[in-house]
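Q: My labmate handed me this sequence with no annotations at all. I'd like to see what the chain might look like in three dimensions before we decide whether it's worth expressing. Could you predict it?
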Amino acid sequence: MRILITAGPTREYVDDVRFLSNASSGRMGYSIAEAAIAAGHEVILVTGPVDLPVPAGVRVTQIETTDELRSSCLELFPACDGVIATAAVCDYQPRERVDGKITKTGSPIVLELVETSDVLAELGGQKEHRWVVGFALESQDPRTNAMRKLRMKHCDCIVLNDTAAISSLENHVEILSPEATTLAGFHGLKTSIAQQLIQFIEQKIVARH
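A: Here is what I predict for the chain of 209 residues:
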């Protein structure tokens, strides 16, 4: 299979030096890319800024902003069999980016934010014969929020984890179906979870397609 994998954070710039982002390390996505290569698949990795080596054999596209992630994924997805979306997309961006650097004046400033593009929802909306596996990082009412994301983004399944996964070597995930049933659960090192997730996709998701 040819698998599109998204990983790492996106950044939304306030001015030329400051940006909004999150603490995603990209480790889960990179581990999945490595596991997919080891399983004999072709991997296209679209990654935000992370401090990780790219796994050998992976074709990589570096991005920073959510719009760059969107453009790359929309271009690459049609030639892939499926997507595993682990990227931690910055959900908001400044309505206007300031040219140069904002200078301190001693007074408060107001920053107006608007939502960024929903990249996975766009991919899910045009998946046709392809499969879509999403990730949901939730801290409150996790299953309800994960199921809402699964349905809005037309995922074949969604991998639910919580904020303890951020920057950690380990993770605890639950895979949910469109019928809100638990299909599998994995716990341990992200490298081990990645291997189990690839096996799950091969046996349970791809088989249905």
